[in-house]
Amino acid sequence: MRAFVMTELTGPSGGAEADVPEPVGAHPWADGERLLIDVHAAGVSFPDLLQTRGQYQHGSPPPYVAGGEAAGVVLEAPPGSGFRPGDRVASLTVWGALAERALGIPRYTVKLPDDFDFVSGAALYLNYATAWFSLHRVNFTKGEDVLVHGASGGVGTAAVQLVRALGGRPIAVVSTSDKARVVREAGAAEVVLSDEGWVAQVRELTGGLGVPVVVDPVGGDRFTDSLRCLDVGGRLAVVGFAAGEIPTVKVNRLLLRDLSVVGVALDPYVARFPEMARTLAAELERLAASGELRPLAGHVLPLASAREALELIDTRRAVGKVVVTIR
Hints:
- By secondary structure, this protein is α/β, with parallel strands linked by helices.
- It folds into two domains: 2-123 and 296-325, Alpha-Beta Complex (Quinone Oxidoreductase, Chain A, domain 1); 127-268, 3-Layer(aba) Sandwich (Rossmann fold), CATH 3.40.50.720.
- It has eleven helices and 16 strands.
- The protein has helices at 46-52, 118-122, 125-137, 154-165, 177-186, 198-205, 222-229, 252-257, 266-272, 275-290, 306-314; strands at residues 2-6, 15-19, 36-44, 64-65, 69-76, 88-92, 101-103, 109-111, 145-148, 169-174, 190-193, 211-216, 230-238, 260-263, 297-302, 321-325.
- The strands form three sheets. Strands 3, 5, 6, 7, 8, 15 and 16 form a seven-stranded mixed beta sheet that branches. It has a six-stranded parallel beta sheet with strand order 11-10-9-12-13-14, with helices on both faces.
- Helix 7 links the parallel strand 12 (211-216) and strand 13.
- Helix 3 packs across helix 4 and helix 6 (198-205) packs parallel to helix 7.
- The chain is globular.
- 50% of the residues are buried.
- InterPro entries: ADH-like_C, ADH-like_N, ER, GroES-like_sf, NAD(P)-bd_dom_sf, Quin_OxRdtase/zeta-crystal_CS, Zn-ADH-like_protein.
- Residues 11-324 form the Enoyl reductase (ER) domain.
């Protein structure tokens, strides 16, 4: 089968399209449960880029097939999984999705609504699961303002849509006016530009109080300013470090204003509390079927351009989700 294979951990340039055998057995994360998917489209995200440089904690040694999530049709499903051949699904794969067939992880797989095409499906699971779990970790409640960094990216647009769908007010932080237009279309109630005194703007939008919640997939030098943007008792969800720098925090900032900083890492949480995977999947299926989630696939490329798909993320040119069509 055709696939995009990383042979060197040198970044996107270390991969190329090649013929590889079809996957055998079960995904290493699937506890022996074989879920084989005929892939129609694959999602590409920041963790995939990290893997190409050996910088991701869940990476696979080369040679490996890249691609962290797949949308397609089930070919084989384990008994009791709730899936059967012919189901249209979106599944987290961690690696292996940029191929004609891939192994999914049953607990991280959802059925697609009839009105979702496979491009939308490939943009669904990772981003919306991450955004939903972020809001869960900070105990988001209806009516709250949520400041979203990197709001024009895959996780960012997902967070904006979810906050609106769940009854909050999403405030988006983006770097350009073009990205501002994108996040407004995604449902942002307010948009601030990161190079135009965004901290002061957020304070003004909240009557000087600050926001109760920040969702931050960017990290870097924005982190301290994000703490300054929080209201007393505010909560910040650490989702990732797309800026490339892992920030540190002086904990007296947390003490003096009763702030909370929480990590967002789904797999260790599910390992300890397995019911979370079922709850999350049910919520994603419900919200997708309701029409409230409409994944933004800002870039759709063929398998032959999979390297370019990764480079879009590497150069921070990606808007919304980057999707690679397989068939």
